[in-house]
Design goal:
Elements lengths: L7 H17 L7 H7 L5 H19 L3 H35 L2
Helix pairs in contact: 2-3, 2-4, 3-4
Protein backbone atom coordinates (compact mmCIF):
# COMPACT_ATOMS: atom_id res chain seq x y z
CA UNK A 1 0.00 0.00 0.00
CA UNK A 2 1.69 3.28 -1.07
CA UNK A 3 -0.24 5.33 1.52
CA UNK A 4 0.85 3.25 4.48
CA UNK A 5 2.24 5.20 7.41
CA UNK A 6 3.20 3.75 10.79
CA UNK A 7 1.42 6.68 12.44
CA UNK A 8 -1.84 6.47 10.49
CA UNK A 9 -3.29 3.93 12.93
CA UNK A 10 -2.41 6.17 15.89
CA UNK A 11 -4.03 9.22 14.31
CA UNK A 12 -7.23 7.31 13.65
CA UNK A 13 -7.51 6.01 17.22
CA UNK A 14 -6.58 9.17 19.14
CA UNK A 15 -9.81 11.20 18.69
CA UNK A 16 -12.00 8.20 19.45
CA UNK A 17 -10.02 7.43 22.62
CA UNK A 18 -10.37 11.01 23.83
CA UNK A 19 -14.07 11.09 22.94
CA UNK A 20 -14.65 7.75 24.66
CA UNK A 21 -13.02 9.02 27.85
CA UNK A 22 -15.07 12.21 27.72
CA UNK A 23 -18.33 10.27 27.27
CA UNK A 24 -17.57 7.88 30.13
CA UNK A 25 -16.59 10.76 32.39
CA UNK A 26 -13.69 8.58 33.50
CA UNK A 27 -10.87 10.92 32.58
CA UNK A 28 -7.87 9.61 34.50
CA UNK A 29 -6.51 11.88 37.19
CA UNK A 30 -2.84 12.83 37.22
CA UNK A 31 -2.72 13.88 40.93
CA UNK A 32 -0.40 16.79 40.09
CA UNK A 33 -1.42 18.89 43.12
CA UNK A 34 -0.85 15.93 45.47
CA UNK A 35 2.55 15.26 43.87
CA UNK A 36 3.54 18.93 44.25
CA UNK A 37 2.46 18.92 47.90
CA UNK A 38 4.48 15.77 48.53
CA UNK A 39 7.60 17.64 47.37
CA UNK A 40 7.50 19.58 50.65
CA UNK A 41 8.07 16.38 52.62
CA UNK A 42 11.60 15.22 53.48
CA UNK A 43 11.36 11.98 51.47
CA UNK A 44 12.84 13.62 48.39
CA UNK A 45 13.70 10.72 46.07
CA UNK A 46 10.19 9.29 46.23
CA UNK A 47 8.34 12.58 45.80
CA UNK A 48 10.43 13.56 42.76
CA UNK A 49 9.50 10.25 41.12
CA UNK A 50 5.83 10.87 42.03
CA UNK A 51 5.98 14.29 40.38
CA UNK A 52 7.59 12.75 37.29
CA UNK A 53 4.86 10.09 37.05
CA UNK A 54 2.20 12.78 37.42
CA UNK A 55 3.61 14.83 34.55
CA UNK A 56 4.00 11.67 32.44
CA UNK A 57 0.36 10.82 33.16
CA UNK A 58 -0.76 14.24 31.95
CA UNK A 59 1.32 13.86 28.77
CA UNK A 60 -0.08 10.38 28.11
CA UNK A 61 -3.63 11.69 28.40
CA UNK A 62 -2.88 14.51 25.96
CA UNK A 63 -1.54 11.94 23.49
CA UNK A 64 -4.68 9.81 23.85
CA UNK A 65 -3.15 6.96 25.85
CA UNK A 66 -5.94 6.59 28.44
CA UNK A 67 -4.71 3.34 30.00
CA UNK A 68 -1.15 4.63 30.31
CA UNK A 69 -2.39 7.88 31.84
CA UNK A 70 -4.50 5.96 34.35
CA UNK A 71 -1.60 3.67 35.31
CA UNK A 72 0.91 6.53 35.66
CA UNK A 73 -1.61 8.61 37.63
CA UNK A 74 -2.20 5.72 40.03
CA UNK A 75 1.58 5.34 40.50
CA UNK A 76 1.90 9.08 41.13
CA UNK A 77 -0.86 8.95 43.74
CA UNK A 78 0.64 5.95 45.57
CA UNK A 79 4.12 7.45 45.63
CA UNK A 80 2.79 10.83 46.76
CA UNK A 81 0.88 9.26 49.65
CA UNK A 82 3.93 7.17 50.64
CA UNK A 83 6.08 10.30 50.52
CA UNK A 84 3.65 12.33 52.65
CA UNK A 85 3.20 9.57 55.24
CA UNK A 86 6.93 8.88 55.31
CA UNK A 87 7.64 12.59 55.69
CA UNK A 88 5.22 12.84 58.59
CA UNK A 89 6.90 9.82 60.22
CA UNK A 90 10.37 11.34 59.79
CA UNK A 91 9.26 14.69 61.20
CA UNK A 92 7.51 12.99 64.14
CA UNK A 93 10.61 10.86 64.84
CA UNK A 94 12.86 13.92 64.68
CA UNK A 95 10.62 15.81 67.11
CA UNK A 96 10.44 12.83 69.49
CA UNK A 97 14.20 12.33 69.42
CA UNK A 98 14.94 16.02 69.73
CA UNK A 99 12.61 16.86 72.61
CA UNK A 100 11.99 13.45 74.15
CA UNK A 101 15.55 12.80 75.28
CA UNK A 102 16.01 15.66 77.78
Amino acid sequence: DPHFSPFSDFREQTPSAITEAAVDGSKPRDYLILAILSCFCPLWPINIVALTFSVMSRNSLQQGNIDGARRLGRNAMVLSVVSILGGIAIIAAAIALNWGCK
